[in-house]
Amino acid sequence: YRPGKCQLLVVREDWAAKGGETKYGLCSSFLTFAQKGYALCHSTHSVMQMPADGKAHIFMAGLGTGLAPFRAFIEQRKWLKSRGTAVGPMTLFFGGRNAHAEYYYKDEVDAFEQEGLVKCCNAWSRDQAHKIYVQHKIAEEAESIWTNLGVEGSTGYFFLCGSKQPEKDVYSALLRIFQD
């Protein structure tokens, strides 16, 4: 969709450690303080590959900057569709603290959803009194997940990318769907 281009989604990470010292994220700090115009890069093949079956339902759970590869997945399906290829449905579970500060590529994602390329199930944990996380949105899509991933002969895929911290909660939500 963007031949010859490399795009990065990097969020500057800094926090106060115990004792008050400010700590900085490794990648975000490197890029923040790098000399303008210079970045050392090495591209490799991604471990996240689009399914060969372009009609398979793809469920994508992107946490924070984990949205980046799923943006590429959606763009790939958009490109295929523009060339007359039939493409399957996509469901995006995206999570962050606040929509106003962390909804990366919001305009693009909204346009993709309006075009019918993806169904967005966003979880903003701090935008309301009670916390809403990606695993809650996954539970709301239980019927679709079961139909496309659990039923014998189903051909769907589920991808998770982003912070490792909620991994166990996402796994538990999926396990509950399969158990129920």
Give descriptors for this structure.
alpha/beta; two-stranded antiparallel ribbon; 180 residues; four-stranded parallel sheet; single chain; 17% strand
Task: Explain what the structure shows.
The radius of gyration is 18 Å and the shape is globular. Helix 2 links the parallel strand 3 and strand 4. The mean pLDDT is 88. 23% of the residues are buried. The strands form two sheets. Strands 5-4-3-6 form a four-stranded parallel beta sheet, sandwiched between helices. The protein has seven helices and six strands; from the N terminus they run ββαβαβααβααβα. It is α/β, with parallel strands linked by helices and 180 residues long. Helix 5 packs parallel to helix 7. The protein is 37% helix and 17% strand.
In short:
By secondary structure, the protein is α/β, with parallel strands linked by helices. It has helices spanning 26-33, 67-82, 99-102, 106-114, 134-140, 142-150, 167-179, and strands at residues 14-16, 22-24, 58-63, 90-96, 119-124, 157-162.
Tally of separate helices: 7
Main beta sheet, described? 4 strands, parallel
Q: Could you give the order of strands across the largest sheet? A: 5-4-3-6
Strand percentage: 15-25%
H and E order? EEHEHEHHEHHEH
> Which ranges are low-confidence, i.e. pLDDT below 50, for 5 or more consecutive residues?
none
DSSP summary, beta strand count: 6
Task: List the quaternary state of the chains.
Answer: single chain
- Assign a percent range to the helix content: 25-40%
Distance linking N and C termini: 39 Å
The Rg value, from CA coordinates, equals 18 Å
The whole-number mean of residue pLDDT values reads: 88
Helix/sheet category:
alpha/beta
- Rough outline: globular
